């Protein structure tokens, strides 16, 4: 066994390009192996992008609520996070434009535009197009964390932000991963970007010293793509997650909404893919207090505060996961959370 090619297994890169083109079935999704770089997953890929395409003290615009583990990378790179609110159509590009017009100049924008973690929504096509226009106008790069692109349902294959990129003025890094499809222990993912950006990453010190990332796992996954096992797994996951996400929403209506007081509201977006649903409870309910009560009933969740950069926001919100569990477990878990709410 030798060091792998710095850009990664050529056959795997070709397969990824073919796979995306086949799933999307549209001209804008066509890409070449030269635009793809193999990584050890989405988190390390984001770290590389932040280190190479920003400098300490720079500003980064981030979804709010945002993916909580990304904040550690931004801190490592000494980036100043500016929250951009999200709604049912993803990152609020109008709010971002207001920041830009006020003089704030980010070097990067980080967003999870497909089946967002934690909200489960996807960015509208109009906002994707406008975000790319703004990136060219104001000169920032976009780190698009698109790890749930293959795990959506009830719609056509999602459009990557990279499909809107301009090869003459490229700004997008599409980050993807096999972790959500095959298992995080593989430590295998990829970045799709313009060849000028790929060339800059190929000059990264870790690649010079260690060669391409994870050649052993790359060979395994390449074989799995060839023999159809990856497609089978994606189909299984889509079927399972579409069922469990529906069960979660039904359980929220059956057990949580009736547990609230008269006049109180429950707010969430029906997930379009991914693993999660972000639930906003009435202001009087503190997620930490609810979590303590829920554990007494044998249930758990992730408190909303972790999805704000200072852990001060979203105090009345909770993130629920519908992956890796059965519909029966989801229904029982949400029922127990409803019981905990009644006791507050």
UniProtKB/TrEMBL annotation:
InterPro entries: Aminotransferase_I/II_large, PyrdxlP-dep_Trfase, PyrdxlP-dep_Trfase_major, PyrdxlP-dep_Trfase_small. One of its GO terms (molecular function) is pyridoxal phosphate binding. Coiled coil: none annotated. It holds the Pfam family Aminotran_1_2. Residues 2-337 form the Aminotransferase class I/classII large domain. Keywords: Aminotransferase, Transferase. The keyword Transferase applies. This is Aromatic-amino-acid aminotransferase 1.
